[in-house]
Amino acid sequence: MTDTQELAGLLETLCPMFLLVDQNGHIQQAGPTLQKLRPELPLVGQGFLDVFELIRPRTITTIPALMSMAGAKLHLRFHDEPRTILKGLVAPLPHSGGAVINLSFGISILDAVRDYALTSADFSGTDLAIELLYLVEAKSAAMEASRSLNLRLQGAMLAAEEQAFTDTLTGLKNRRAMDHLLEHLISGNSTFALMHLDLDFFKSVNDKLGHAAGDFVLQQAARIMQQETRSNDTVARVGGDEFVIVFKDLTREDTLACIAGRLISRLKEPMTFQNQSCSISASIGTALSTQFDCPNAADILHAADLALYQAKRDGRSCHRMYSALSKAQT
């Protein structure tokens, strides 16, 4: 084994990013980590200044000038992409006229680890870069754990919030959700219709067939209301057998009357629970936000209630608009 080979073997262990160059600047040996940066370009045999561009000192443009920089710090980068910035130190070899040039990444180590998929095995065991890599890995693991925890917490908060605004029996929104929605619509000056629906003869189903049958009827009624409304409408259960439907940006009375008619028609169809027929109907009252100069939730709800009570007085299973009551009163 030649002296050059022995020296190269020693350098691979101590500084795996070394270059062994001859007096003409040709690379004779390259450390395994350095070669890993250019797997498609064998560094051995290349001219040092053909592979690397010297950034500082700017005065170095020839190999003799490079060899004269013993002990001085070099700043350089690859000529080709990725143009990773490196630091270097030149150590001339006695008698041969060549030199050992030891390279490192400096502050660009994190970019290098990312660009070249380097691991701790690519560095000398005493290189402080290993400790930095461990710190980076630990930080990445901690950030990932924190991100995962935050996602779980956000999911739990969303689930809790959804549960707080949901009627557990029917899956509809509850009164709290309705109040929140009305406040949002009114503060945003949105126009809307509010339909108050009450199930007729529901108490009779409960009394005769039991609460399980009553729960079944409520669930079926909720399903019908969702089917007969738009995806951006809100259906809420606000009492035992009372429901409110909020139609954003819909104030046409003929359209609302048509929707109410479909609801009444479907809800009076008998429902079968455990071979028992459950017969109900629906009375509906509707009020519009546009009927009020300064709309507020309490006034609109009260107006819809008045219309609902009128539907009850008129024989149930029908729909009344608050606007018709207002005109009758005037």
Explained architecture:
The structure is a single chain. The chain has 330 residues and is an alpha+beta fold. It has 3 domains: 3-126, Beta-Lactamase (2-Layer Sandwich), CATH 3.30.450.260; 128-164; 175-329, Alpha-Beta Plaits. The protein is 45% helix and 21% strand. It is built from 12 helices and 13 strands. It has helices at 3-14, 32-36, 48-51, 63-67, 109-116, 128-164, 175-187, 202-209, 211-227, 253-267, 297-313, 322-329, and strands spanning 18-21, 27-30, 52-56, 73-78, 85-92, 99-104, 192-200, 234-237, 242-248, 271-273, 276-278, 281-288, 319-321. Helix 8 (202-209) runs antiparallel to helix 9. The longest helix is centred in the middle third of the chain and has 37 residues, at 128-164. The mean pLDDT is 86. It holds the Pfam family GGDEF. Residues 190-324 form the GGDEF domain. This is Diguanylate cyclase.
Give the end-to-end Cα distance, rounded to a whole number of Å: 115 Å
* CATH first level of the largest domain: Alpha Beta
Structural class: alpha+beta
CATH topology of the largest domain: Alpha-Beta Plaits
Number of strands: 13
Shape verdict: rod-shaped
Query: What topology, given as strand order, has the largest sheet?
Result: 2-1-6-5-4-3
What portion of residues is helical?
Answer: 40-55%
> Can you tell me the number of structural domains?
3
Order of helices and strands: HEEHHEHEEEHHHEHHEEHEEEHEH
Tally of alpha and pi helices: 12
The largest sheet, given as strand count, sense and whether it forms a barrel, is: 6 strands, antiparallel
CATH superfamily of the largest domain: Reverse transcriptase/Diguanylate cyclase domain
Radius of gyration: 40 Å
Global mean pLDDT: 86
Beta-strand percent range: 15-25%
pLDDT < 50 stretches: none
Just name the CATH architecture of the largest domain.
2-Layer Sandwich
Protein name: Diguanylate cyclase
Pfam families: GGDEF (PF00990)
Organism: Ruegeria atlantica
